[in-house]
Amino acid sequence: MGHGCCPSSSSSSNSRLDSTSSDSTLISPQKNFFALKLRKRSNSFEMETMKGLFNPTLTPQQQMRRLRHECRYADGQIQGVIKSSTSPYVERRQFRRPCRYAIACCSTVTAIGRDAAPTATAQVERSVVRLGLPSKGRMAEETLNLLKSCQLTVRQLNPRQYTADIPLLPNLEVWFQRPKDIVRKLQSGDLDLGIVGYDTVSEYGQGNEDLVIVHDALEYGACRLALAIPKEGIFENINSIDELSRMTKWTAERPLRVVTGFTYLGPKFLKEKGLKHVAITTADGALESYPAMGTADAIVDLVSSGTTLRENNLKEVEGGTVLQSQAVFVASKRSLSSREGVLEITHEMLERLEAHLSATGEIMVTANMRGNSAEEVAERVLSQTSLSGLQGPTVSPVYCLRDGKVKVDYYAINIVVPQKTLYKSIQQLRSIGGSGVLVSKLTYIFDEETPRWRKLLSQLGM
Question: Residue ranges of the ATP phosphoribosyltransferase catalytic domain (predicted)?
Answer without folding.
Answer: 178-353
